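Hi P.,

Sorry for the delay on this. The queue was packed all week, but I finally got your sequence through. Input first:
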Amino acid sequence: MDLREFTERYVVRAKALQPAPGAPPDARLPRFKRDRFMVLGRDSERRAGDTGPVLKTGINLGYARCGPGKGFCSHKHPDCEIFVVLSGHWKITIADDTEVTVGPLDVVAVPGDIFHAAVNIGEDEGYMMSINMGTDTAGYALHPAILEELGLQAPVTQP
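Then the structure:
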């Protein structure tokens, strides 16, 4: 395999990434508006023709881009979720009452089945990487308070 073929099949160029189409239900609330970029995995959320590999790596790796004061709502996954702050400063809330402030290159590993949320507390746009287990969209459940705020009756979960 030559360099060109390798690059086309296995290299993701950040500049070529486009925000994923669609959004989770919490993005209907202004404070959870964000751009999501599918880097590895999450085949069903990728745009046709997206750059980079669609490998069966056993993980989903994505980036979130949020303005100041924005983030994502409290939710949980059956397996762990790992966050790596790429830029900005973030407050991550675990189990509704534990908060940790993190900055560039800090890593937070959230065990499975624990509600967690994040908000960009910096003054500039921030980026965070998330890593979930699986080969497509990571299963999740929204926090009951978010369901109530959205006016949803049944739990919103993804496989």
